[in-house]
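Example (one chain per record):
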Amino acid sequence: MKLLLFSGTHPRHLFINSEIIKHFDETFIVVMQREELIPSPPLNTTQEDKVNFIRHFQNRYEKEKEAYGELSYESVFKSHEKIIVNPVDLNSTKVLNKVKEFKADICMIFGVNLILDPVLSELPKNKINIHLGLSPWYKGGATLFWPFYYLQPNHAGVTIHQITKSADQGEIIHQFIPKLEIGDTIHDVGVKCVLKTKDEIIKVINHFKTYGLFNGVLQKTSGRVWVGKDFNPSHLRVIYNLFNDDIVDRYLNKELGHSDPKLYSCLD
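Predicted structure:
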């Protein structure tokens, strides 16, 4: 079975995609270069917000390094045919021609920008995205951050869905959330989501190999698409100044209310 894989270059993407490629006979990979793992605070950020910003992304880097190791696409994909692109070229003729030539049975996507025409129209019928966020409530970007900002850490999870021209709007195939435990920080939960994905994605692949299709469910509500401009360093005050990154503890101690997300899965 032939897999067309679209992969970002961050360790979380490589950690999952290194597992996916084990389950296919032939794979072609479109690797999209991602931004720096530890960004610099935006200009005109207050000192308080700068401290939080540096703490937030440094903590994420350390937690992910401990969980996934220091991975590079050169080493993870060294034995596979691939093309390296920047975000501007993701939907280029160069990628389109490679997609046409390869003729994949299934496409899987984790860690790249929105795939649009002309590339989108040439992908196989099943084009499966791994979205770190629970659609339709948290679509777009930073979707493991916003549940914490809104004091719903139990809504930090993963949606595996078909892709469409709209961000994270396709039919849902499988959703799941990690187990929250006392002491979990915002980035502990993020890492747990990725670690759980490594197991869950195997179920998705095996389902496709057995049945050749997914009985996904349409997203019935529009939810919200979070974009980069929605985030401001001042939002981190809730996580660190107000709660000192103990939102999970407060939630488990029943201080923040409770509402379970309604999850869907078409897998056996």
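Caption: Strands lie at 2-8, 26-32, 81-85, 106-110, 127-131, 139-140, 158-162, 172-176, 225-226.
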